[in-house]
Amino acid sequence: MAPFLLTVLQVLLALTFWIGIGSGSSNRYNAGDHVPLFVNKVGPLRNPSETYQYYDLPFCRPEPVIEKQETLGEVLNGDRLMSSLYELKFREDKTHLVLCRKRLTSSDVARFRDTIAQDYYFQMYYDDLPLWGFVGKVEGDYFGQEEQHTKYYIFSHLKFNVLYNADEVIEINSFSDPSYLVDISENTETDVQFTYSVSWNLTSERSETRMNKYSQASLHPISQKIHFFSFLNSITVVVLLIGLLSLLFMRHLKNELRSSSIGDEEEKKEVGWKLVQSDVFRCPRNVSLLCAFLGTGTQLLILIIALFALAFTGFLYPYNRGMLLTSLVIMYTLTSVVAGYTSASFHSQFEGNKQKRSVRLAGILYPVPFLIIVSVLNTVAITYGATAALPFGTIVIIILIFTLLNTPFLMLGGVLGNRFGLLEFQPPTAVKRNPREIPLQNWYRRKLYQLFLGGFVPFIAVVLEWHQLYASLWGFKIYTSPGIMLFTFAVLIFLSTSVGIILTYIQLSGEDHEWWWRSILCGGFSAVFMYAYGVLFYLRSDMTGFLQLSFYLGYTALFCYALFLVLGTISFLASLMFIRHIYRSVKLE
């Protein structure tokens, strides 16, 4: 099984290299060449998922508006790039050039006033470089006084400062000039003249490093301090757990194994896990669902590893439009063969002729909840008219990818797992016909307590870094530390593995032989704590509105569900290896 997974991972890495190389091409221009500036979207600063098309606001617009051809990842990301009236020719300065003269109706004024009150920003792209600005500003917003006098202003003049090196654009910034304001406080028709200026300046920075400024947020002293404390927190928990494993757990287990080799019958009777050796390898309940769980978890684990490889090669960087989502679609489709192979391979160890059911379940265990939630969120986005709403053509493409690529790859993996997968499972000890009755358990061996402990210990070790990840996913903090994230993920895997083994040993010591599903639940329960922390993060944030709430809860649930599958799979495999080892040792002795 390991060589097959390694081969799949190598194919994914080769593909991600190809994707990254294709997206890293730079543009070169001559003086006076037209470099198009595309407008993208607008939205309230507090709600990152609530964005609308730029021309949903009554800005100056060309006739006709030309939409830029976008990739699947860009559409999924909510990007809607369109042509604009701005003319920024390479190395040509412009001063107070009139963009357009526009008469704003009372409804236009009301719309602008509402967006300014919500701190709307706009986003544009110039030579694949993002730039932002605010629509306007509010003055005199004093809510604690008897008389409230609020002024709303539109920024009518936009300054572009562009840096270049030889024949390449290196950096661009936009500034709204505060001396050019139009008062729209009154709900009356208003004439507005929109203007802009462009200044070009030479820089020594190379084009290869022009995206570095977007990753400088992670180098801020405050961010570095948070990462440092997160590192200390993780190391402390890991050291304590290693100490618990070495001083209590491993020593106690070695003493028990030594007592078996000596032949002390009285001590043997006192050891609960030895009494269930004829039941511990009994075929688990819902074996098809169990194997499908393992297949899906292994698939997502390979996908995460490939994403880390893509990040470390430098092909995943901030504001590389749609790159992350495009990679996710391609890699999830290809790794479907891993899900089919793993589920069929594990199922063949228990029931040699029913692998198809496991493979089918592996094909719906994550995609079906994903499609249901995305469909609901897409309906909400369509109702609001947000750019997050997927066009009909994109929905058709996703359906075709799932039916024509994802499903065949899944079935191919099932066939490979059936023919070349793991051999039939040979338990170290014989399995009795009738299962042993499970005695009444102490409080610390009961399921709810073990689930809480199995989820809380790994979560508490990564909670600080998890906060940074949420701030990056649902805010405007840029997370550009793949090394720290990889370390956090490794700590999470190690703790889930260690705690899963300890809890499985405690369960077996209480003569409870139904460990299969509990080992999965204990390992994956960290994701439940992560989702609960996500809810707390939302309550403490400035995000508002039903659209943002639904997107936040929905996509955070999908993200945590994927982690539940991954961590549950890892915990199960670690527990299985541990159980095989200790019962094989008992048999040999």
Salient structural properties:
589 residues; 13 strands; alpha+beta; 17 helices; 4-stranded antiparallel beta sheet; 4-stranded mixed beta sheet; elongated; single chain
Task: Write a structural description.
The chain is 55% helix and 14% strand. By secondary structure, the chain is of the alpha+beta class. A hairpin with a 7-residue loop joins strand 2 and strand 3.
How do the helices and strands line up, and which of them pair or pack?
Elements: H1 2-23, E1 34-35, E2 37-44, E3 52-53, H2 72-76, E4 88-89, E5 94-104, H3 106-117, E6 120-126, E7 129-134, E8 136-139, E9 151-155, E10 157-165, E11 168-176, E12 181-183, E13 190-202, H4 221-262, H5 265-270, H6 272-275, H7 287-312, H8 323-334, H9 336-350, H10 355-364, H11 367-384, H12 392-420, H13 447-473, H14 482-509, H15 516-524, H16 526-540, H17 546-588
Parallel strand pairs: 10-13
Antiparallel strand pairs: 1-4, 2-3, 2-6, 5-13, 6-7, 8-9, 9-12, 10-11
Number of helices: 17
Query: Roughly how much helix do the residues carry, as a percent range?
Result: 40-55%
Report the end-to-end length measured between terminal Cα atoms.
30 Å
Average pLDDT, all residues = 84
Instruction: Catalogue the unreliable spans.
Output: 19-25, 142-147, 266-270
How many strands in all? 13
